[in-house]
Amino acid sequence: MNLRFIEWIWHIKGSLALAPGQTAQDAFDSLDPLFRQRGTTSERSGTTLTFTKKDQDAQDKMSIFDDGILRIEDGATGPVLRYYLASRALLFCFLAPLLFIGFGQLTVALGKLETPAKEEAAKKPEKEEAVQPQNPIDKFLGAPAPEKPKKDPADKAKKDDKKHSPTAAYVFAAIFAALYVIGRVLEDRLIRSVFRKAVRGSEELPELVTA
Amino acid sequence: MDGIRVGNRIIGTQAPVTIGWENIPRVEGGPVKQFVFTHFQPAVLFALIAFWYYAPNSIAKASTAIGIGIAFKVLLLALEWVNPRYRSWQLTWKELVTDLFYVGLGYTILRMVDNYIGDGVIIEAIQNSFDWDKLSWFTGLPLLVQAFAISFMFDFGQYWMHRGMHNWYPLWLPHSVHHYITQLNINKGAVGNPVELFLIGLGIGGFFDFLPRAALLAGALGMAIGTYQHINVRFNTPRWWRFLFNTTEHHSLHHSQDFEATRSNYAGSYIFIDRIFGTCIDGEAELLGMEGGRRMSIREQMTFPFTEGWKTIQEKRAKRRQGTAPYDDEGYEQTDAIPAE
């Protein structure tokens, strides 16, 4: 299968114009602190830098990336840094909604399996439940009096249905879908900003170069 | 590191910790910020108690409690941005995704499992066979007494379960994963191996659903006190609060990289339980986690108790084959795994 069409899901790529005359050595030296983090190994070879990260620190600026390649190339207006980074966290977040939809479906399926047992249980006569007493202190302070427990079998059925409700699973599926979109956009921008600040310091923002 | 003597123990020989309330930083900023972050915790606690005490029966329901719980967590997430305790604990996208994954497991698959083999099924069996008239003395007590009794019983059980996890290797294995978190944020309490999350979820909470208002009040106490265990917010917590209740400061010590510091502050809500049993240490820590703060991936969090347990069994077997005792002179297991005791 050709992954070219789906790899954007967990890969982030981009490019950044370097200052005129900035060499690959200079650029990689500026980026070096990013690759001196715990769990990071990197290798430079001429105009190419490859890295891998494992058990990245939570505050590592590249914590979402597990490996990647950075390359310095000659662009039309000067040297350009091109990067291609892989993130298992993005892939995980992309797939998480499927997992939670699966949990939802499993909940529904288990509920259907249990229906005959529930009907059987509903036939059993329920004990008469007395209203709970209210302490005089609570009465004096104005707390609402306890209600007599409802004997409506529909209530018990409703309680059982809640046990087999897939709603929570679907809500989390939606949350992770939203988090994926946010993360895919946010982390793309953040890493561009981190690289830009590293290679250009506080200089004015260079114009983006299309990949 | 020299460490600091606390009773018979030396705390902070392996990683920096701050001991004593007088050494803990205060909220920085103007008078309004100072006021808010000094009175926020008691104000929320008393407001919630008043709400659940007086709410009409039509509102005093579990669904309302769930809604309030979610809204409260969102508010606390906002507070983490406004007034973080440590910049080094700032919530990132990846941390949020990881934390919410575990929160999601708690609301879905773990709840499902609990309905079949957890406390849900045990409680239902007891409720169906118990003579409730025997409890009429309890149900006639004032609501707040009932609520405190329920939450105290729950927390007392949690204290011993938690302490057991730090003292018995088979229980430590699943709990150890939770100690690999390297920062505290509002949803970090949910992070851990599912086996541990199942064990720690065993409790008496559902047992009291025949006393809906007292149970909801007990839940509110847990939420308004216990939620602050894992939070990255600097509060000027009142002296009486930190004497009675667990705080993020206490719990950060419990998560410290210093082994001796982790063996303290086991209670979830009521730190006075730790004070009674001599396991309370007042203080805080910034550097958290195990193995010098190595952050564990979700994949490893899922498998670690099993792989580590298997490794230990293999090592024991190897040592037996070589004729070496599996325990050292002090009676501790000789293993590479981070010891629980």
From TrEMBL, chain A:
Keywords, ordered alphabetically: Membrane, Transmembrane, Transmembrane helix
Biased composition (Basic and acidic residues): 119-130, 147-162
Domain of life of the source: Bacteria
Region (Disordered): 119-162
Bilayer-crossing regions: 89-110, 168-186
Protein name: Uncharacterized protein
Species of origin: Novosphingobium hassiacum
Automatic annotation (TrEMBL), chain B:
Highest classification ranks of the organism: Bacteria, Pseudomonadati, Pseudomonadota, Alphaproteobacteria, Sphingomonadales
Keyword Transmembrane helix: yes
Organism listed in the record: Novosphingobium hassiacum
Chain intervals for the UniProt region annotation (Disordered): 315-341
Presence of keyword Transmembrane helix: yes
The protein's name in its UniProt record: Sterol desaturase/sphingolipid hydroxylase (Fatty acid hydroxylase superfamily)
A GO BP entry: lipid biosynthetic process
Ranges annotated as spanning the membrane: 35-54, 60-79, 100-117, 137-156
Domain Fatty acid hydroxylase, residue spans: 149-279
GO cellular component labels: membrane
Record key words, sorted: Membrane, Transmembrane, Transmembrane helix
Cellular localisation: Membrane
PANTHER family noted in UniProt: STEROL DESATURASE
GO molecular function terms listed in the Swiss-Prot or TrEMBL record: iron ion binding; oxidoreductase activity
InterPro entries linked to this entry: Fatty_acid_hydroxylase, Sterol_Desaturase_Related
